[in-house]
Amino acid sequence: MINIETNRSIHIDDKQISTFIETGTAMFPMGVVFTKEELQYINDIQIKLPQEQVIIGDAGEPNLLYVSRLMVDLPGEKPTLVNRPLSESIINILNDKIRQKFFKKLLGKEKYLRRCQINRMTKNSFIGRHIDRDSNPDYDVAVVIHLGKQFDGGEFVVYPDNNKSYTFRPNYGTVLISQCKIPHEVLTVNSDERVSLVFFLSDYLEENRRIKNH
């Protein structure tokens, strides 16, 4: 396990806050939310996880990508860690006091981690337009840590209303935070590999209130 600087604080500037308010999404540069050491540690662990191909997302959207699960959040159930102990090593970083304090400052209150996975997107991969709350009505924000060091395409596009869209072009180490009530998509990856760690935060820690499909 890596040594984490427990006295470190994460700075949020006014521009990031105003962007988050306007678009429902903010992007933080490498080294702000997670250190280079933490990013490398997460990357070293995630490549050991099993993966599965996904063509239909949890919200029913068309997808083409590979997913490795760390925490699942199934309808009618409480969140569950999978692929232990590898998943625990990563979750401990995401859920530590530094990050809890940062999210509370940005979002105004304490949040709970409900779901976590690695998304691996190769050439021609994409994630269709969807709303994260269709996976769980209690999701508040999605956090996306970018681990891919070289890729083309794969822009993150949000649609806060019918007349506007905003495009974010992430790179290695950037962290995107987006409100789960806002439609969004990931455009087609044109080359190389776009890898990201995605987790969802909520006020609610009980059973997923999404209705099961039988």
What does this structure look like?
With 214 residues, the chain is an alpha+beta fold. The chain has a single domain, classed as q2cbj1_9rhob like domain (Jelly Rolls), CATH 2.60.120. 19% of the residues lie in helices and 37% in strands. It is built from four helices and 14 strands. The chain has helices spanning 14-23, 36-46, 86-94, 97-107; strands at 25-28, 52-56, 62-72, 80-81, 112-121, 126-130, 139-146, 151-153, 156-161, 164-168, 175-179, 184-186, 189-192, 194-202. Strands 1, 2, 3, 4, 5, 6, 7, 9, 10, 11, 12 and 14 form a twelve-stranded antiparallel β-sheet that branches. Strands 8-13 form a two-stranded antiparallel sheet. A hairpin with a 2-residue loop joins strand 9 (156-161) and strand 10. Helix 2 runs antiparallel to helix 3. The longest helix is centred in the N-terminal third of the chain and has 11 residues, at 36-46. The protein is globular, with a radius of gyration of 16 Å. The mean pLDDT is 92.
